[in-house]
Description:
By secondary structure, this protein is of the alpha/beta class. Helices cover 34% and strands 23% of the residues.
Amino acid sequence: MSGLAAILLAAGASRRMGRPKPLLPWAGATLIEHELEVLRAASVARVAVVVGSNAEAVRRVVGAEAPLVFNARWASGRATSLARGAAALLEGNAGDPPDAVLVQNVDQPTTAEVIAHLLAELRSSGADAVQPIYVDPRDAEGREHGGHPVLLAAALLPDLAAATEEREGLRGVLAGRRVHRVAIEDPTVGLDLDTPEAYEAARAALGA
Length: 208
């Protein structure tokens, strides 16, 4: 087994942000460079970085740090990028498959500590997938929300490679599976840098 693999989804057009999210400044680098560094620190053996819109700009920044997987159908929805990344991992690890796969969106940065926590929970629980949960302090009812990233047993890679928008992408893959949801007190599990306001608020809160 080659341990941990990851699909880093960075193919979207960043319309709500108004500029390419992978190239946003973050922690002294760009967001995508920071996330690749976190994945390395978490001992991720192989990363499929899925690009689409702004692919060449991302390629110039990433360089040889990680191989990029181009999704020609990126405009059809996130599920197409998820499927493309999973297919790339299946092709590249035919002789040495991973035992777990992390699914991460480029606008939802995480930490190596969160990834380690998820991996330990996946191994101890025997679940098909592990997802962090958190309580949003802005939620007056104190409800739990699903966080990110999501870690899946590698046995689900073929299902990820067959994901479609019609079957709700990752949500559809996890439907009916044993998903272990674990509370993690880390502010990154609820981050979603989807708009300029959310991005600036996150930078201020995390010093990034």
